[in-house]
Design a protein that fits this description.
Chain A is an alpha+beta fold. Helices cover 42% and strands 17% of the residues of chain A. Chain A has 15 helices and eleven strands. In chain A, the strands form two sheets. Chain A has a six-stranded mixed sheet, with helices on both faces. In chain A, strands 7-11-8-10-9 form a five-stranded mixed sheet, with helices on both faces. In chain A, a hairpin with a 5-residue loop joins β1 and β2. In chain A, α10 runs antiparallel to α11 and α11 packs across α15. Chain B is of the alpha+beta class. Helices cover 42% and strands 19% of the residues of chain B. In chain B, α3 runs parallel beside α8, α10 packs antiparallel against α11 and α11 packs across α15. Chains A and B meet through α2, β5, α3, α4 and α10 of A and α2, β5, α4, α10 and β10 of B. Chain B: InterPro entries: Metalloenz_LuxS/M16 (IPR011249), MPP/UQCRC_Complex (IPR050361), Pept_M16_N (IPR011765), Peptidase_M16_C (IPR007863). Chain B: Pfam families: Peptidase_M16, Peptidase_M16_C.
Chain lengths: 430, 452
């Protein structure tokens, strides 16, 4: 068993304005990954402003005081780099991987949009990116079969007012109502150096990175009173199952079973992570063996289970299966429920446990095999747990999970009377 | 507030290196490996000459069914025991194909590579292929394709391919087949395809820390029991561009977006214009800052994204643009996309655009070629296209040396705006009149579910 999941050096500092800087030097390839985690996500959005954190992410690519509109992309790609950004309920992150000689360019661009976005933000840019985001919503959620499953699961899992109740993409109505002043205020409120972690992994030394961070980010003032998101740590059990059935233009019945578990990063969630792999990763998993192979009621490529790694409230565990031709939704749901229920009653064998841990180990090292994967991981642990070095603890924690702990966790968080079941039925053809 | 106003220049460029390549012949098969010192993960990939092009016309999807059937038990153990053995090593068998090759691979911590390759070879060389299992896998694959074809995209892709290359040719039909072609396969077809193509040794690709790998042992496992030599492959296929532009309308009633696929045939992979053509495609539709993405997404807000590129295999190639746009702006999005293609064809590229494209493509070689999987894929390119060990270093030089004249000439020679096939998958009742009025070309209809 490895005693560390992160066998590379980690050095950290904090600038006077509160920006935390994390560096992990690795000279293997002539590239550096730069990653900024801002501690703001859709969980911070008040009612009527859903989708704003994500729309804001788009605006961050549209120019700032010293960077012209679209120049950000052009300069990074023109240096040979890759870049993107993502928003989820917990946080927003921005990242680029560039040939090492362009590290300073990446810092200049990131600092300029951290400290100088608001003066460059125009109504025209907002209107254009609002259209782009509405197209993203159509493309990813509305125009594909089952595309809205996540949008439907969240309100079933989390009550109104909970920070995870609404989806990050937001509603069309809220996006339409978004005004410029709200976005200017959004940036002033959350895009402060003391609300961010800057991580650099790859072909650069800590001393060099710290000096450049101070040069480019050091002049951006801290913000004293960043409002926290609503507290969602406690979600009372409802004591009754939540059931939703959707009839839609889908090619086959599909069932999702979801439970609230523990926050990502907790010991309880480590158990859930291994449990999810036993339940739904790969052809040796219980769901595959029982539903795809054994009873043959589920399509083999579309059966699985996974945890959604959210850290600020009990995170969801989702299991799903799609019916083989001729199999009804009720039979499929019964099969799925039975396999989930059995996690509490049929002990996980040593072979099942070893298989799950071996798959998780490979998945971990795959994430660690790139500088960008490592940078994102360190940024996460610094942001969510206050210390990037805690990343090293995750893999050993998974490997220490026992069969007894899985059975206990299943009894505790997978109870049938606190379960969400979402079923898609195929529309009758006229 | 103090922000640095001046954009910094680059630091000293680091030298580019592709990992050292080792080639040897062992036990009748070829081994091509790259040394990645200190890397914990390793990848082994068995490359077989059994790409989609080897499938007979009318039997599209054979390779895909066989890929799944390999895991339904071997001469030594049943499917459940096989899954447990493979996943107990922390890996999975990844099997797939493209036009030129069939690939089966494993990715594991390096100390388990030998055991993983033994299991890989067991499935590839001695699968059980029990008729009942093969029939079930075939039916599951047909169902999986039906699921996939319920999404926007696959029907449009198929319509474009058929129009470009002719549905009478294997390369005019979808690479993975369609739901009907797969449903119509016989069990015996699958067994024959295996005996014809999966017993030949092929090439074993390895990417990992070679100090901790015994290549000869891996090769012995991979090539045990194999026989038969290489089989002749056909030469490049020349497909002339169409005389006129046309619109193919694939009906998707109620769709909130129109899925666009625009394209025409282009040269095969070994064509001498490969590098300038790639760069012309990058300026037009490759990078985020491409002409198409800038106009259609950033200026007009019609789409979440639009991409265009030249893609090629050993025998043929195509230029294609793909996007999804709001239904209401289908016609203007098409008109403006065709306009950008025509402008690039007639006017070429600018030095400013090309500077971004060439350094992006060149820089991507250092940024993207980090993982054992990425390196294994790069080695696969060397083998499939008969390229030398220093190919990637030379490619980098060629990309950086390409000038405006060469790239503009490639755009003029290989873009054909007046010959484009414009496939639109969307709500025909809503968009038909507008498309007809656009003047882009005649409309051809494709009925739902029909095979062209």
């Amino acid at each position: 068993m490895p005693d560390s999941g992160y066998p590379w050096p980690i050095e950290t500092t904090r600038l006077d304005n509160g920006l935390r800087v994390v560096v992990s030097e690795d000279r293997t390839a002539p590239a550096v990954a730069v990653n900024l985690w801002y501690d703001v996500g859709s969980r911070h959005e008040p009612q009527g402003q859903t989708g704003f954190a994500h729309l804001f992410e788009h605006l961050m690519f549209e120019g700032s005081v010293n960077v012209a509109k679209t120049e950000h992309m052009k300069l990074i790609q023109g240096s040979g780099g890759s870049l993107n950004a993502t928003t989820n309920p917990d946080r927003t992150n921005y990242f680029e991987t560039v040939p090492a000689e362009h590290l300073e360019l990446a810092f200049w661009l990131e600092a300029d949009r951290m400290g100088g976005l608001v003066p460059a933000l125009t109504q025209e840019t907002l209107d254009n990116q609002r259209d782009v985001v509405k197209n993203e919503r159509r493309q990813r959620y509305e125009n594909v079969p089952y595309g809205d499953a996540w949008l439907r699961l969240l309100p079933l899992l989390y009550p109104p007012g909970h920070p995870y109740h609404h989806a990050t993409i937001g509603s069309m109505a809220d996006l339409n109502a978004a005004d410029l002043a709200t976005f200017q205020a959004f940036h002033r409120t959350y895009y402060a150096p003391n609300n961010a972690v800057l991580t650099v992994v790859g072909d650069a030394s800590a001393a060099e990175v710290f000096a450049l961070a101070d040069k480019y980010f050091g002049g951006i003032p801290a913000r004293a009173d960043i409002p926290p998101a609503p507290d969602g740590r406690t979600v009372p059990a409802t004591g009754r199952p939540a059931v939703e059935t959707v009839t839609a233009e889908v090619p086959a019945p599909r069932v999702y079973v979801a439970h609230r578990t523990h926050p990502f990063g907790s010991a309880g969630y480590d158990v859930v992570t291994v449990l999810a792999a036993v339940l739904g990763s790969g052809r040796g998993s219980r769901l595959y063996q029982r539903l795809a192979d054994g009873e043959r009621i589920a399509q083999p490529d579309l059966v699985g289970a996974y945890g959604v790694d959210l850290a600020h409230a009990p995170a969801p565990l989702i299991a799903t299966a799609t019916a083989r031709p001729g199999v009804g939704a009720e039979r499929l749901a019964a099969g799925l429920h039975a396999v989930v229920d059995e996690l509490a009653t049929v002990p996980v064998t040593a072979a099942e446990l070893d298989r799950a841990k071996a798959l998780l180990s490979t998945a971990w090292w795959r994430q660690m095999s790139t500088v960008d994967g490592r940078a994102d991981t360190l940024g996460r642990y610094a942001t969510q747990f206050g210390d990037p070095a805690k990343a090293a603890e995750r893999l050993p924690a998974w490997l220490a999970v026992t069969a007894e702990q899985i059975a206990e966790a299943a009894a505790e968080v997978l109870a049938a009377d606190d379960r969400v079941t979402l079923t898609y039925l195929a529309e009758e053809k006229p | 507030m103090t922000l640095i106003t001046a954009r910094p220049g680059p630091g000293a460029a680091r030298p580019y290196r592709f990992p050292p390549v080792v080639r040897r012949t062992v036990a009748g098969g070829r081994v091509v490996a790259a040394h990645l010192p200190g890397q914990n993960l390793a990848v082994a990939l068995l490359l077989l000459d059994a790409g989609a092009e080897r499938e007979p016309v009318g039997k599209e999807g054979l390779g895909g069914v066989l890929a799944k059937a390999l895991e339904e038990g071997t001469a030594q153990r049943d499917a459940a025991a096989y899954a447990l053995a493979v996943e107990g090593l922390g890996t999975e068998l990844v099997a797939g194909l493209d036009w030129d090759s069939f690939q089966v691979s494993v990715q594991v911590p390096v100390d388990r590579l030998n055991a993983a390759v033994e299991l890989l070879a067991e499935a590839v060389r001695t699968p059980r292929l029990d008729p009942a299992d093969v029939a079930r896998v075939r039916d599951d694959e047909a169902t999986a394709l039906r699921m996939d074809w319920a999404n926007p995209g696959p029907r449009a892709d198929a319509a474009l391919r058929a129009d470009l290359f002719g549905a009478e040719n294997r390369w005019g039909r979808p690479m993975y087949g369609d739901p009907d072609s797969v449903a119509g396969l016989d069990v015996e077809d699958v067994r024959v395809f295996h005996s014809e193509w999966f017993i030949r040794p092929g090439t074993l690709i390895v990417a990992g820390d070679l100090d901790r790998v015994d290549l000869d042992a891996l090769a012995a496992a991979a090539f045990a029991g194999t026989g038969g030599g290489p089989v002749e492959r056909g030469g490049p296929i020349q497909t002339p561009p169409r005389a006129e532009r046309r619109i193919i309308l694939v009906d998707r009633p109620g769709s909130v977006q129109s899925t666009l696929r625009l394209g025409h045939p282009s040269p095969h992979r070994a064509h001498p214009d490969h590098v300038p053509m790639t760069l012309a495609g990058t300026v037009l539709g490759g990078a985020f800052t491409s002409r198409l993405n800038h106009l259609i997404r950033e200026v007009r807000g019609y789409t979440y994204g639009i991409r265009g590129d030249f893609a090629s295999s050993r025998r043929f190639g195509r230029f294609a643009v793909s996007s999804g746009v709001q239904t209401a702006v289908t016609a203007p999005a098409l008109v403006e996309s065709v306009g950008e293609i025509a402008r690039t064809q007639s006017g070429g590229v600018t030095e400013e655009e090309l500077a971004v494209a060439r350094s992006w493509r060149a820089g991507q070689l250092s940024v993207e070629l980090q993982t054992p999987r990425a390196i294994a894929s790069a080695l696969t390119t060397l083998v499939v296209h008969d390229l030398p060990d220093d190919y990637h270093a030379r490619l980098r030089e060629a990309l950086l040396a390409a000038d405006v004249e060469q790239v503009s000439a490639a755009a003029a020679a290989h873009l054909h705006a007046d010959s484009l096939t414009l496939v639109v998958e969307g709500d025909a009742a809503v968009i038909r009149d507008e498309l007809a009025a656009s003047g882009l070309g005649d409309i051809v209809d494709v009925a739902p579910g029909s095979r062209r």
